[in-house]
UniProtKB/TrEMBL annotation:
<comment type="function">
    <text>Essential component of the vacuolar proton pump (V-ATPase), a multimeric enzyme that catalyzes the translocation of protons across the membranes. Required for assembly and activity of the V-ATPase.</text>
</comment>
<protein>
    <recommendedName>
        <fullName>V-type proton ATPase subunit a</fullName>
    </recommendedName>
</protein>
<keyword id="KW-0375">Hydrogen ion transport</keyword>
<keyword id="KW-0813">Transport</keyword>
<feature type="region of interest" description="Disordered">
    <location>
        <begin position="157"/>
        <end position="177"/>
    </location>
</feature>
<dbReference type="GO" id="GO:0051117">
    <property type="term" value="F:ATPase binding"/>
</dbReference>
<dbReference type="GO" id="GO:0046961">
    <property type="term" value="F:proton-transporting ATPase activity, rotational mechanism"/>
</dbReference>
<keyword id="KW-0406">Ion transport</keyword>
<dbReference type="InterPro" id="IPR026028">
    <property type="entry name" value="V-type_ATPase_116kDa_su_euka"/>
</dbReference>
<comment type="similarity">
    <text>Belongs to the V-ATPase 116 kDa subunit family.</text>
</comment>
<feature type="transmembrane region" description="Helical">
    <location>
        <begin position="637"/>
        <end position="655"/>
    </location>
</feature>
<dbReference type="GO" id="GO:0007035">
    <property type="term" value="P:vacuolar acidification"/>
</dbReference>
<feature type="transmembrane region" description="Helical">
    <location>
        <begin position="548"/>
        <end position="566"/>
    </location>
</feature>
<keyword id="KW-0812">Transmembrane</keyword>
<keyword id="KW-0472">Membrane</keyword>
<feature type="transmembrane region" description="Helical">
    <location>
        <begin position="578"/>
        <end position="601"/>
    </location>
</feature>
<feature type="compositionally biased region" description="Polar residues">
    <location>
        <begin position="157"/>
        <end position="172"/>
    </location>
</feature>
Length: 822
């Protein structure tokens, strides 16, 4: 079992350390293996190891069953597609234990698929015939119009010719008129073709026909008013009706090939008028019959799909459940006797009793004569990390896991992130009006969370819903910091009492604070409202927020260093306590802890000392007198001591640790004892870069590599102490930007529209103000402050103690399968 560490060095918290894990082995009889894995999947507290990693998927014991499950999944996907096309949704039934067996479900799905496939094939054939008949009916109508108009034109021309008796021909004369009139025996028999061609191809169709037959055809086209359904593709297509007159079989062969190339559907057209009328009546009758037949076929198909929809979710879950069970069984190794399966996996220590109960129930329910054997194995492998979270803490834990999953039983930053993340966000987003807007939006998500959780939301809405409790905490802290800044959409209010200042005379109002005198006690909470709108507002708030950012930053970085102490104590690593935690704490506080002290002293005493000058000359001229920049007696001596401690702490971090690690390595392997000593410090092994496996327990110690690694770590911390402190100034910068943007929208949009004394201008101003506030301040500024708070936690805070090189506990659980489906 994996060692639990020192315990006792910090208060017990569910999230501070990951759950204690154990490597377990379960020996399961073959006859109860399926039911046992099913019960363990319901429990969801064991992560199985793949004991057949060297085998391909096709060589494993249950490959045939997985293939059957995949085939069932394919059939279910086919049913889902058909239901989607028919606009039938699956019934959201409760997923209870089904009495339908796997083999019975496989047979039932096969029968339904065969029946549905046959119905679809018949419907497709009928639909294609129906579409062809519709096209044929259109061709009969249009071609009839062609022939009728041509007959009228020919009759009129013949009457005109007989009347004139002039023997002159014209371009409007019928084809071969002269030959027909002079010698009836020379009349040429013309053939005709009729059909439909896509409208977009009509011009090209006409040109190709003309060129192929060298103009020896007569073509007439006319567009159809409404698009028709193409029999082949089943899509609505705009088409032209055409009639082609030709002479000779060679011309006919060319025309047929061209029609095929242009997807022109051809239909026969009788020349006799009586036959035309008979064809129209026959086609209309067949269309009505086919329509009724198709409607009956669709009704039959819908009835099949509705019967499938009522049980679809149940079948789908059963198929996925069975596939997951057989996939897990394939990870188990088969005993030599092939009468039992051997499973290994990680489980939390507290789950041991529950797992054994599940094994016992499976033995009884499967009526097996032999029970399963459960035992805990000793191992040096690093266990997975498992935190028990709820719907409130899970989003905060995801923020930490996005940086890296905690090493096994490493101190978890998620405990502090629950408070520090929304607080740092609120420092940048301080406005209690905007905070209330965020809170109301989040409150809607929380009140309707049960309904929203069962719906499919968009990507952005899904992220907001998943982080609803994070946003709620951010909004509450924003209301708090907004009350401290005394800003409600940039407008100050005297909520906690009257302002402490008043004008000396009427001329000083709204001009500057120089004319103000203190007439009452200090404003009890937050910033005095009189500062807003005064000339000294920006210098005052800049100074306040800049110093506050440094204090918050130094406090959070110190918390990170203190957490490195608890990690070292938990893993019993005294080297990290004496040669990492202590010098880092001394270095950071000798410089920036001292700066924080000066800020507090300056606030308390009201001194006008220049802190920039103090910090710069602490390094450049540490022995010079401070003069008017002295804040307290003994300050010069204290600065010299702190500077000396900071200089000493750098080699303190750099040199001793690699030497001590080398000495520990030499002691451990003295006398050719290459096996690791029992209880050897795990973190020291990690420092040495050792990877334990079954064949050997140590690697050659490379002092140069360890020293270079420690030198990089030291340089990174020293430079990072400066850059990380400066990075916290983003709290001041974003807070200032948020306040100024809010002030601009209020002064330049809302107040300006109000001052125009025009109702239209006022409405426009209010609309612009609302959209600017929502779009810029409540969306863009929220996202900006969120990302900056994320960076402060990942880089400035977590890099002081958090390694984040672990891996998540991923148990075999049917509940996770349901979540993936949702």
């Amino acid at each position: 079992m994996a060692r639990g560490g020192g315990g006792g060095c910090c208060p017990p918290m569910d999230l501070m350390r990951s759950e204690a894990m154990q490597l377990v082995q379960v020996i399961i009889p073959s006859e109860s293996a399926h039911l046992t894995v099913s019960y363990l999947g319901d429990l969801g507290l064991i992560q199985f190891k793949d004991l057949n990693a060297e085998k391909s998927p096709f060589q494993r014991t249950y490959a045939a069953q997985i293939k059957r499950c995949s085939e069932m999944a394919r059939k279910l996907r086919f049913f889902k597609e058909q239901m989607s096309k028919a606009d039938i949704s699956a019934s959201p039934t409760q997923l209870n234990e089904t009495h339908l067996k796997f083999d019975d479900l496989e047979i039932k799905l096969g029968e339904l698929e065969a029946e549905l496939t046959e119905v679809n094939a018949n419907n497709e054939k009928l639909q294609r015939t129906y579409n062809e008949l519709l096209e044929y009916n259109t061709v009969l109508q249009k071609a009839g119009e062609f022939f009728y108009s041509a007959q009228r034109s020919a009759t009129a021309q013949q009457r005109e010719m007989e009347a004139n008796q002039s023997g002159q021909t014209s371009l409007e004369s019928p084809l071969l008129e002269q030959e027909m009139s002079t010698d009836p025996s020379k009349q040429v028999k013309l053939g005709s073709l009729s059909g439909l061609v896509p409208k977009e191809k009509a011009m090209a169709f006409e040109r190709i026909l003309f060129r192929a037959t060298r103009g020896n055809i007569f073509l007439r086209q006319e567009p159809i008013d409404e698009p028709v359904t193409d029999p082949v593709s089943g899509e609505k297509v705009a088409k032209n009706a055409f009639v082609i007159f030709y002479s000779g079989e060679r011309a006919k062969a060319k025309i047929l090939k061209i029609c095929d190339a242009f997807n022109a559907n051809r239909y026969p057209f009788p020349e006799d008028v009586n036959k035309q009328l008979h064809a129209v009546q026959e086609v209309s009758g067949r269309i009505s019959e086919l329509k009724a037949t198709i409607d009956m076929g669709l009704a039959h198909r819908d009835s099949i799909l509705k019967s499938i929809a009522s049980d679809f979710e149940q079948w789908n879950h059963l198929a996925k459940r069975e596939k997951a069970i057989y996939h897990t069984l394939n990870m188990l190794s088969v005993d030599v006797t092939k009468k039992c399966l051997v499973a290994e996996g990680w489980s939390p220590v507290f789950a041991g009793v529950q797992i054994q109960d599940a094994l016992q129930r499976a033995t009884v329910d499967s009526k097996s004569q032999v029970g399963s054997i459960f035992q805990v194995l000793n191992t040096k492998e690093s266990p997975p990390t498992y935190f028990q979270t709820n719907k409130f803490t899970s989003a905060f834990q995801e923020i930490v896991d996005a940086y890296g999953v905690a090493k096994y039983q490493e101190a978890n930053p998620g405990v502090f992130t629950v408070v520090t993340f929304p607080f740092l966000f609120a420092v940048m987003f301080g406005d209690w009006g905007h905070g209330i807007c965020l809170f109301l939006a989040t409150l809607y998500l929380i009140i309707r969370e049960k309904k929203l959780a069962s719906q499919k939301l968009g990507d952005i809405m899904e992220m907001m819903f998943g982080g609803r409790y994070v946003i709620m905490m951010m909004s509450l802290f924003s209301i708090y910091t907004g009350l401290i800044y005394n800003e409600f959409f940039s407008v100050p209010f005297e909520l906690f009492g009257k302002s402490a200042y008043a004008c000396r005379d009427p001329t000083c109002r709204d001009s500057t604070t120089d004319g103000l005198v203190k007439v009452r006690d200090t404003y009890p909470f937050g910033v005095d409202p009189v500062w807003h709108g005064s000339r000294s507002e920006l210098p005052f708030l800049n100074s306040l927020k800049m110093k506050m950012s440094i204090l918050l930053g130094v406090a959070q970085m110190n918390l990170g260093i203190v957490m490195s102490y608890f990690n070292a104590k938990f893993f019993r690593n005294s080297i990290n306590v004496w040669y990492q935690f202590i010098p880092q704490l001394i270095f950071l506080n000798s410089l920036f802890g001292y700066l924080s002290l000066l800020i507090i002293v300056k606030w308390c005493t009201g001194s006008k000392a220049d802190l920039y000058h103090v910090m710069i000359y602490m390094f450049l001229s540490p022995t010079d007198d401070l003069g008017e920049n002295q804040l307290f007696s003994g300050q010069k001596t204290l600065q010299l001591v702190l500077l000396l401690l900071a200089l000493v702490s750098v080699p303190w971090m750099l040199i001793p640790k690699p030497l001590l690690l080398k000495r520990q390595h030499e002691r451990r392997h003295q006398g050719h004892q290459y096996a690791m000593l029992q209880g050897t410090d795990e973190s020291v092994g990690a420092e040495l870069g050792e990877h334990h496996d079954d064949s050997h327990d140590h690697e050659e110690f490379e002092f140069s590599e360890v020293f270079v690694h420690q030198m990089i770590h030291t340089i990174e911390f020293v430079l990072g102490a400066v850059s990380n402190t400066a990075s916290y100034l983003r709290l001041w910068a974003l807070s200032l930007a948020h306040s100024e943007l809010s002030s601009v929208f209020y002064d330049k949009v809302l107040l300006m529209a109000w001052g125009m004394n025009n109702i239209v201008a006022l409405v426009i101003g209010i609309v612009v103000f609302v959209f600017a506030t929502v779009g810029v301040l409540l969306v863009m500024e929220t996202l900006s402050a969120f990302l900056h708070a994320l960076r402060l936690h990942w880089v400035e805070f977590q890099n002081k103690f958090y390694e984040g090189d672990g891996y998540k506990f991923a148990p075999f659980s049917f509940a996770l399968i349901r979540e993936e489906e949702d």
